[in-house]
Amino acid sequence: MSKTKRTAxxxxxxxxxxxxxxxxxxxxxxxxxRAIGLRGRLPWRSAEDLAHFRVVTMGHALVMGRVTxxxxxxxxxGRKVIVLSRKAEYAARNGIVAHSxxxxxxxxxxxxxxxxxxxxxxxxxxxxxxxxxxYLTEIARDFEGDxxxxxxxEADWRETDRRRVGELAFRTLERAG
Length: 177
Ligand SMILES: NC(=O)c1ccc[n+]([C@@H]2O[C@H](COP(=O)([O-])OP(=O)(O)OC[C@H]3O[C@@H](n4cnc5c(N)ncnc54)[C@H](OP(=O)(O)O)[C@@H]3O)[C@@H](O)[C@H]2O)c1
Description:
With 177 residues, the chain is of the alpha/beta class. Helices cover 19% and strands 29% of the residues. The protein has an eight-stranded mixed sheet, with helices on both faces. A two-stranded antiparallel sheet has the order 2-8. The longest helix is centred in the N-terminal third of the chain and has 11 residues, at 47-57. NADP nicotinamide-adenine-dinucleotide phosphate (NAP) is lined by residues 28-29, 36-38, 40-42, 64-68, 71, 84-87, 90, 99-101, 118-123, 126, 147.
C-alpha cells in the first residue's frame, strides 16, 4: 500500500516524519563511553567541535537546560536561546526561560521550523523521542564524566552524512521510517 502524501505543515511530506513528529534536531558531542560532561563542563577541549557547533546552530533557535546554559562562556550570537528551568523566578540574560520542554519547543518553533536541542543529559533524555535529526560528534576515546548521552538504537536512524577529522567523527542521522 502506498503512503499517502499530505501537505499540511507538520504532517508527512511537509518536514514531519511518518509518526507525526515535527522537525526537531539535536546536537551533541559524545565520548566513546557516551560521556558528555564533567562537573558542569565539557570533558574535553575541541576547537573543531566548537566550530562545527557554531556552523550547525547558526540562525537557529536552541533549547538547552539551565546547567548547560550557565556553562556557556558568553552569548551565542545569531541564535535564539531558550533555557529550561523549573525555577519560577529564574531569569536568563541572553536567553528566554521556559518551564517545560513542550513550552521551550513551542517558543523555539515560533521563529524556527527546525529548532535544535543542545543538552545537557537530562534534556537530551527527555527530548530524544521527539527528535527527527541528530548531529552527533563522536570522539573515539573514553572520558571521565558525570553526564552521559542516552543510548540510541542505530536501527532507528539513517546516517546521511559522516566526516572524519582526526579522532572526531561528525555524523548526521535522520530518524528512519
Ligand atoms: N558534550 C555535549 O555535547 C554537551 C552538550 C550540552 C551539555 N553538556 C554537558 O552536560 C552537563 C549538563 O547536563 P545536565 O544534565 O547536568 O544539565 P542540563 O540538562 O544542562 O540542565 C538541567 C537543568 O535544566 C532544567 N530542566 C531540565 N529539564 C527540564 C524540564 N523538562 N522542565 C524545566 N526545566 C528543566 C532544570 O533546571 P533548574 O535546576 O533550574 O530547575 C535542570 O536542573 C554539563 O557538564 C555540560 O557541559 C555536554
